[in-house]
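Entry 14. Structure prediction run on the chain below.
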Amino acid sequence: MEAGARTHATPHRRRPGARRIAAVAAWAALAGVAIGFGVGLHYLLAKPASAPAAAATAVKLDGEATWAPGAQAAPPITTLRDQTGRLFSLNSLRGRTVAMVFFDSYCRQACPLQGRALAVAEAALPAAQRPVLVAVSVNPRDTPASTRDAVRRWGLAQTGSWHWLRGSHAQLALVWKAYRIFVAPPAHGDISHTEALYLIDRGGYERSAYLYPFVPHFVTSDLRTLASGREG
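Output returned:
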C-alpha cells in the first residue's frame, strides 16, 4: 500500500434494492441532511479502469462503491502528522481494518452528523472488530485540541483508536486528490467537501466506500465482514 504506483480498478457497482434506497432516504430525513448525493457518487466512482476482471469478482459488501480483494490499493499517506504530532504512515495499520473519513473539526453541520453515524456503526461491533479511525483534515486550521474535542463530541473517542491527520494545505491537497475528495475554497461557514467514508481491509486495500448520509447498519455489516477476513 505504501510502495509503488497506485493500481486503479473499476469498482463493483450494483443497482441498490428498494429496501436499501428507502433506508438511506429515511436516515437522511431523520438526520436533516440535504446533499448532492448523485454528483458526489459519480465523482467517487470515476476511477480509471485497469483490472476489470479482478474488480468484477462478487463481494458481499454494501457500500455505494465496492472493490474485490486486492483490486484497489489504498493510496499511501506518509507526510501528515496526527493529533499527537507524530508522522503518520497508513502502512503502519496493516493487519487492522481502517475507516477513513475527511473531516473539519470546526464543522457544525455535515461532519458532526457523519461522525455520530460512524460512531453508531462502530459501537455495534465487538471491540476486537472495530476499525482504526483515520480522519484526514479538510481544514488546515485544525489543531490537536480542536480535533480531540470533535472526536469526543461526536462519540468517536469512545469507540476505538483514532488518528486525525493534519498538514499544510499543499500536503493535505495531495491526499484529497488521491482519494478523490473535493474540497471547496475557503469561505464563510463550514467548508464544503465530499463527505466520503472508505473502508480499508487488513491488507491495505479499499473494499467499500460510502457517501454520507449512510445507514450505520450497512457500515457495521461491512466492517464485520472485513474484520472477520471473509471475502464474500
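The longest helix spans residues 18-31.
Filed with the rest of this week's runs.
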